[in-house]
Design brief:
The protein is mainly alpha-helical. Helix content is about 70%, strand content about 0%. It contains six helices and no strands. The longest helix has about 35 residues, at about 5-35. The protein is flat and about 75 Å long.
Amino acid sequence: MKLKQFEKFIRTVIREEIDYALKREISSLKEGITQSPNNNVQNPTDVEDFRKKLREQIAPPPNFNTGDDTLNSLLQETATTPSWEEKVASNDPVNKFIKKDWRPVMDAIEKKKDYRP
C-alpha cells in the first residue's frame, strides 16, 4: 500500500468515525429535546445565583504590562484560551482514534514495502 493510498484510507476512516459520532450525538440531543419540552424553566434568582457562582469560579485573566495594547490583548487571549486537549473529551471516539498507537500498523507496512518475492 502506497503512502498516498494509506493517507486516503486514514482520511476515510476518520470521516466515517466523525460522521458516526456526530450522528450519535445529534440523535441523543434530538431525543432530549423531544422528551422534555419547556422543563428547563428556572426562577430568575436561580439563574443569578448560578451566574454569581460561575463568576467566582473563573479567575481573573492575567495582566500583561508590555506597553503595547495589541500585544497585551494577544497575550491575554492566548493565556485564557483553552488548549486543544481541554476542548476534546478524553473518551471521545475520534480522540481515541487519533491517540491510538499506530506503530504496529506502520511496521507491517514497512515489512510489506520491503518484501520482494
